[in-house]
Write a structure and sequence with these properties.
Blueprint: H1 9-19, H2 24-30, H3 35-42, H4 51-62
């Protein structure tokens, strides 16, 4: 069975990325994931519990763009280190 990102998370993720003023490639680099993986998450076609998604939200939260309208807060997610900024 394939778990997909909720239909709410994908658009919220894209909105937060755009609010941060980042391209998909820039955010993917900061979150240490591929831009294709980020596209899958934004499109709702990747696991909602993925480590990549947690890293992406942490980057967006650190930039002040990650406020979400529901779902898990970053504090509720397991610890993961942000990659160093390029």
């Amino acid at each position: 069975m394939v778990t997909v990102t909720s239909t709410r998370v994908g658009p919220e993720l894209r909105t937060a990325r755009e609010r941060a003023g980042l391209s998909r490639e820039q955010l993917a680099r900061l979150a240490d994931c591929s831009s294709s993986r980020l596209a899958q998450l934004e499109g709702g076609m990747a696991p909602a519990k993925s480590e990549a998604l947690k890293r992406i939200w942490r980057v967006l939260d650190a930039l002040g763009a990650g406020q979400r309208k529901g779902g898990a807060d970053t504090d509720e997610l397991p610890d993961a280190e942000l990659p160093p900024a390029a």
